[in-house]
Amino acid sequence: MSLAGRPSNIGTRFHNFLYEELDLDYVYKAFTTTDLGAAIAGIRALGIRGCAVSMPYKEAVIQHVDALEPSAEVIRSVNTIVNDDGFLRAYNTDYIAIAELLAAHEVPAGDSFAVLGSGGMAKAVVAALRDAGFTDGTVVARNEGTGRALADRYGYAWRPELGPARPRLVVNATPVGMAGGPAPDGLPVEPDVVAAAGTVFDVVALPAETPLVRLATAEGRRVISGAEVIVLQAVEQFVLYTGVRPSDDQVRRAAEFSRDEVVS
Question: Per the residue annotation, which of 13, 15, 58, 123 is the catalytic one?
């Protein structure tokens, strides 16, 4: 199952496609909740094998699980829970996906960067950037408490606004541009910030082409999309849940299926 403030059927279509493809006896459903503790207790009590965790629950869920794997412990953010006979173990496959995408797109570690946001996804991004060798970075977040704490933890700067800075790598880890969110048609930065960048990375997965992705593509920037993140992190979740790693072709077809007739 999955828990999200704004559930979508991307994960359900991706996982259920592979369950059928591989003849596995699982089914995947998406939910939201107003009682996170009770929802997590239900996973344990009902023997649900696993749970994907999305905004806004990635940090709040920590107090309800039994153990954090290193990927979640270091970041203090969870996007995956695996239930082993009532013992709930938490992971962060977002970090794994982001690290793989930075390498696959050959983003230069010498580039300056700005990460917009300071929530669970921003934590995964900043940790992956630090581990990939990026040294010149800024966390841009209006919340000084969370923003400064995230920046200080990894040795980066914090600013409440981007201001005149024009980093070579811009990462949007806010809900701006998200379908059904507070600003689905908005940009998280001014257009000239995109024009000055070498790489634009938008972690928003729905829609696949956010306003930021469309603008960066039109400007000829190197683009990494949330649609790429969601596929890679979902594959790692699938392996954790089932113990089976699908082939690259199966993943490709599952990703295509998950994007067809997506309903937010």
Answer: 58
